[in-house]
Each structure stands twice: as C-alpha cells, then as structure tokens.
Amino acid sequence: MNIQMLKDIVSGTLNKTLSFPQIVKLLHEDGVESYHVDIVLSETRYYHKKGETFVAKFPHPFDKPALEFSAEKVKEAISKSQAGRITYRQFMHDIAQAGCVYYIVYLDGKKVDYLGRKGECHMEPMP
Predict the structure, then answer these.
(1) What pTM does this model have?
(2) 26, 34, 116, 121: most buried, per Cβ within 10 A?
(3) Residue 126 near residue 117 (C-beta atoms within 8 A)
(4) First-last CA distance in the chain
(5) Residue 45, beta-bridge partner list
(6) For residue 115, how many other CB atoms are within 10 A of its CB?
(7) CA 119/CA 28 separation, integer angstroms
(8) Which of 122, 105, 125 is nearest to 25 (CA)?
C-alpha cells in the first residue's frame, strides 16, 4: 500500500487537484479495494487487497451530521458533485446536512453506500 499516495489523495481532494475518477484510478491501480470516509471522526480508512489498512485524518473537522437521514438530499449532493458544481468540502457539508455519518466506496463492487445514524442507507452505483 502506497501511504504517500494516499496522503497525496487526501491533499489533492481538498485542494481540488484530483477528481473522483482520478482518485478511483490511482487507488485501484495500487490495489485498494475499498475506503470508508467517517464524517464524525473526519478520517478515511483505506483497505488494501493484501489486508493492509491505513487511516488518514483530514486536516479539519467535517460538519456534524444532522440527526435525520435524507436519501434525497444525499442524491442531490452526489448529482452536484458529479456535475462539478460543488467542491469536495461542499459535498461533505451537504451530505452531513443530509444526515450521512459515513460512506463506503467499494472500488471492485463499483458502488458507494451512504449511511445514516440509524442504519439508513443510500446506495449509489459508480459509472
């Protein structure tokens, strides 16, 4: 697992120098099979096919997630992000306001699960 690349991905995400498709390609090429973004703890956990893991802390805390989960608001944030109309920071703000506490990206499964406090879930297929 290329730890420096993972740190660079966090930085590139926040500095708007890496797009989601670029990030997916880099992670997939390195053998990362999934990653888990924890909004409450402001960190991302990466899981490699060889069993290795790495936790990256974000340099700033994310917004506290709302108490109620709204799959519709999560979908709106995803749509805006995919269209390039909002930054990653704004995306994280929007999904937190929608009650998302974390999301898991399954690179090989080509899907993302967005979860709320009570186990509510929105699954988004990856292109």
Answers:
(1) 0.91
(2) 116
(3) no
(4) 25
(5) 36, 55
(6) 20
(7) 28
(8) 105
Tokens of 20: 């989601």
Q: How far is CA 86 from CA 23, 62, 76, 100, 108, in A?
A: 17, 16, 11, 17, 26
Residues 6+ apart with CB under 8 A from 42: 57, 58, 60, 61, 62
**Based on the number of CB atoms within 10 Å of its own CB, is 32 exposed (0-12), middle (13-18) or buried (19 or more)?**
buried
- Quote the Cα angle for 81-33-83, to 5°: 10
Confidence band, pLDDT 50/70/90 cuts, at residue 39: very high
- Report residue 110 CA to chain centroid gap: 13
pLDDT class of 13 with cuts at 50, 70, 90: confident
Q: Which two tokens stand for residue 12?
A: 């590139």
User: Which carries the bigger pLDDT value, residue 114 or residue 82?
Assistant: 114
